[in-house]
Amino acid sequence: xxxxxxxxxxxxxxxxxxxxxxxxxxxxxxxxxxxxxxxxxxxxxxxxxxxxxxxxxxxxxxxxxxxxxxxxx
Length: 73
Description:
mainly alpha
Protein backbone atom coordinates (compact mmCIF):
# COMPACT_ATOMS: atom_id res chain seq x y z
CA UNK A 1 0.00 0.00 0.00
CA UNK A 2 1.51 3.30 -1.07
CA UNK A 3 0.70 6.66 0.47
CA UNK A 4 -1.25 9.02 -1.74
CA UNK A 5 0.82 12.02 -0.66
CA UNK A 6 4.56 11.74 -0.17
CA UNK A 7 5.09 15.11 1.48
CA UNK A 8 3.21 17.81 3.34
CA UNK A 9 3.44 20.18 0.36
CA UNK A 10 1.77 17.55 -1.86
CA UNK A 11 -0.93 17.12 0.77
CA UNK A 12 -1.57 20.86 0.90
CA UNK A 13 -1.57 21.16 -2.91
CA UNK A 14 -3.83 18.07 -3.28
CA UNK A 15 -3.04 17.65 -6.92
CA UNK A 16 -3.67 21.33 -7.75
CA UNK A 17 -7.08 21.20 -6.05
CA UNK A 18 -5.79 22.34 -2.65
CA UNK A 19 -7.00 25.91 -3.07
CA UNK A 20 -10.57 24.75 -3.54
CA UNK A 21 -10.44 22.08 -0.83
CA UNK A 22 -8.88 24.29 1.83
CA UNK A 23 -11.08 27.27 1.02
CA UNK A 24 -14.15 25.05 1.43
CA UNK A 25 -12.83 23.86 4.78
CA UNK A 26 -12.14 27.45 5.87
CA UNK A 27 -15.60 28.67 4.81
CA UNK A 28 -17.31 25.75 6.56
CA UNK A 29 -15.42 26.25 9.81
CA UNK A 30 -15.96 30.02 9.62
CA UNK A 31 -19.72 29.63 9.15
CA UNK A 32 -19.92 27.12 12.00
CA UNK A 33 -17.99 29.40 14.36
CA UNK A 34 -20.14 32.38 13.36
CA UNK A 35 -23.29 30.35 14.07
CA UNK A 36 -21.97 29.30 17.49
CA UNK A 37 -21.09 32.89 18.40
CA UNK A 38 -24.46 34.16 17.14
CA UNK A 39 -26.33 31.48 19.08
CA UNK A 40 -24.49 32.25 22.31
CA UNK A 41 -25.18 35.98 21.99
CA UNK A 42 -28.85 35.34 21.27
CA UNK A 43 -29.05 33.06 24.31
CA UNK A 44 -27.46 35.68 26.55
CA UNK A 45 -29.82 38.36 25.25
CA UNK A 46 -32.82 36.10 25.83
CA UNK A 47 -31.73 35.28 29.39
CA UNK A 48 -31.25 38.99 30.11
CA UNK A 49 -34.66 39.82 28.64
CA UNK A 50 -36.37 37.07 30.65
CA UNK A 51 -34.67 38.22 33.85
CA UNK A 52 -35.95 41.77 33.30
CA UNK A 53 -39.41 40.47 32.49
CA UNK A 54 -39.50 38.33 35.65
CA UNK A 55 -38.40 41.28 37.78
CA UNK A 56 -41.15 43.47 36.32
CA UNK A 57 -43.73 40.77 36.87
CA UNK A 58 -42.58 40.31 40.45
CA UNK A 59 -42.96 44.05 41.05
CA UNK A 60 -46.48 44.00 39.63
CA UNK A 61 -47.58 41.09 41.79
CA UNK A 62 -46.18 42.66 44.97
CA UNK A 63 -47.98 45.94 44.20
CA UNK A 64 -51.28 44.10 43.68
CA UNK A 65 -50.96 41.91 46.76
CA UNK A 66 -50.24 44.71 49.23
CA UNK A 67 -53.56 46.06 50.48
CA UNK A 68 -54.05 49.77 50.70
CA UNK A 69 -55.44 50.65 54.09
CA UNK A 70 -57.12 53.87 54.98
CA UNK A 71 -55.93 55.53 58.08
CA UNK A 72 -58.64 57.07 60.13
CA UNK A 73 -57.92 60.31 61.89
